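dumping this here so i dont lose it
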């Protein structure tokens, strides 16, 4: 005979999209033997105990069910008089307990793992840093009392004697110059998300999902490499991307300039690399290795291949030892200089080249959103005019226009933006910008050039706006070449 209560569990499981757990079968037998006639609603799983049907949830659900059943079965076997109310109370309490534990611990598993790992390695700074981080997280999730208890523990143990070999919790400094080897940026001071192509966004989203579900993936013994390499020309959003990742993960960004790590003293470079990695391992953070090619540049600067090899090896060893606990982002303008062994360590890679027209259009929209009165046609012109410019240039134009509002007390115009772009067109990456050739040209030539580039986009009205002349003048200038060419063509025909 099969008890209705076991049916009830199975039905609940099925309603959550789950297969009935195998562990319900021993219960069926036990309850059948015990002659338990629980009412149908005896073992009602509270609806919030029903997990979503992901693999991890099904796995936990099975464990939960098994635990409940094991706890109930002996009671039923031992005490045949156990009433349905008793068994229902036990089941509900157990389920509630498990449910609360599961729900309350899951978002913090990643920190708990790190605290345990720090404790096992006698790494006190790591334990303390992650405990403080966990307290902040609990508080921001509304659990003030747990946060206070943790903080109290931290205060109480603050003056305990530390083993001397342990690393400190402050940013390490270069032993020779005493300059800090890194800068710590707290997540609150970050700007909006970077504007990316679909492909770049897909890689970033995947990286963030993996980083956020780190604890869950690790518990299912999946090997996760949390390393991201961002590469591309200056001003195209590498640092911006790193800051965004840190903010999304709610972690501070530890920015390390690789050239700052390179010491003139033999052996100190490897020591600096080790201290920065030890620091990153002992504190909740995203480690950002900026100007990453500085290591590779040693090859040219030092003419000392032995040292380069030592530094690269030290870097690789430290990165491998860091494991999958810390998120590491590296940025470089010269990916071709990277050692293949280093390159291989970065499993996620995002190339950030000079932005394409659709990306530039979104950048202009974003950066001019609260500056002046720029319409769709203006943005279309600026998108084309900024061909070959970086996101940083577009941001710079918007900043200068903002300043103009304050200094000149007037709304910025399309002409102001155009003039600023012309001024910015020299310098790094200028070969990619068609505007560079027009920088010192007479307005007539600029007008003609723009018209020839795209006669539809650069109408006389738009050219007039850009050059600050009348429409008639703009028309005359921009069509001068056409007329002359037309005349030449006609004359040559005759
Ligand atoms: N794709 C983008 N989306 C949004 N803003 C961007 C983008 N690219 C650049 N910017 C803007 O330009 C600024 C400078 O970019 P950032 O410092 O990230 O460039 P970088 O690639 O790190 O340059 P460098 O190689 O010189 O360090 C950013 O703060 C951001 O405001
Ligand atoms: Mg940068």
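and the seq i came up w/
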């Amino acid at each position: 005979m099969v008890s209705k209560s076991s049916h009830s569990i199975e039905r609940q499981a099925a309603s959550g999209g789950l297969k009935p757990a195998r562990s319900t079968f021993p219960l069926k037998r036990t309850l059948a033997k015990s002659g338990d006639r629980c009412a149908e609603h005896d073992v009602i799983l509270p609806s919030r105990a029903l997990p979503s049907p992901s693999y991890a949830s099904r796995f936990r659900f099975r464990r939960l069910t098994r635990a409940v059943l094991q706890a109930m079965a002996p009671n039923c076997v031992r005490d045949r008089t156990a009433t349905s109310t008793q068994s229902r109370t036990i089941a509900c309490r157990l389920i509630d307990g498990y449910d609360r534990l599961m729900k309350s611990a899951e978002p913090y598993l990643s920190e708990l793992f790190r605290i345990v790992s720090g404790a096992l390695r006698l790494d006190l700074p790591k334990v303390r840093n992650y405990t403080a981080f966990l307290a902040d997280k609990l508080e921001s999730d509304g659990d003030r009392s747990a946060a206070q208890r943790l903080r109290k523990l931290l205060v109480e143990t603050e003056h305990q004697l530390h083993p001397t070999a342990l690393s400190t919790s402050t940013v390490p400094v270069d032993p020779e110059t005493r300059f800090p080897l890194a800068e710590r940026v707290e997540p609150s001071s970050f700007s909006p998300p970077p504007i990316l192509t679909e492909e770049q966004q897909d890689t970033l989203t995947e990286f963030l999902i993996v980083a956020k579900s780190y604890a869950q993936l690790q518990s299912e013994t999946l090997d996760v490499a949390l390393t991201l390499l961002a590469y591309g020309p200056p001003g195209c959003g590498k640092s911006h991307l790193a800051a965004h990742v840190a903010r999304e993960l709610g972690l501070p960004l530890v920015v390390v300039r690789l050239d700052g790590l390179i010491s003139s003293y033999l052996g100190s470079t490897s020591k600096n690399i080790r201290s920065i990695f030890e620091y990153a391992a002992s504190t909740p953070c995203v480690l950002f290795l900026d100007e990453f090619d500085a290591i590779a540049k040693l090859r040219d600067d030092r003419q000392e291949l032995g040292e380069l090899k030592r530094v690269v090896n030290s870097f690789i060893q430290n990165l491998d030892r860091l494991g999958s606990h810390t998120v590491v982002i590296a940025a470089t303008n010269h990916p071709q200089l990277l050692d293949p062994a280093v390159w291989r360590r970065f499993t996620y890679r995002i190339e950030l080249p000079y932005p394409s027209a659709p990306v530039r259009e979104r950048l202009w929209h974003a950066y001019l959103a609260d500056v002046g009165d720029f319409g769709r046609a203006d943005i279309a012109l600026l998108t084309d005019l900024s061909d070959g410019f970086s996101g940083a240039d577009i941001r710079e134009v918007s900043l200068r226009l903002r300043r103009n509002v304050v200094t000149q007390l007037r709304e910025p115009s399309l002409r102001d933006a155009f003039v600023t772009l012309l001024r910015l067109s020299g310098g790094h990456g200028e070969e990619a910008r068609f505007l560079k050739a027009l920088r010192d040209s007479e307005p007539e030539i600029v007008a003609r050039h723009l018209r020839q580039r795209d006669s539809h986009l650069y109408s006389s009205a738009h050219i007039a706006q850009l050059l600050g002349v009348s429409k008639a003048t703009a028309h005359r200038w921009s069509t001068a070449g056409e007329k002359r060419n037309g005349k030449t063509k006609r004359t040559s025909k005759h």
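The beta strands are 183-185, 227-231, 253-257, 286-290, 327-332, 348-351.
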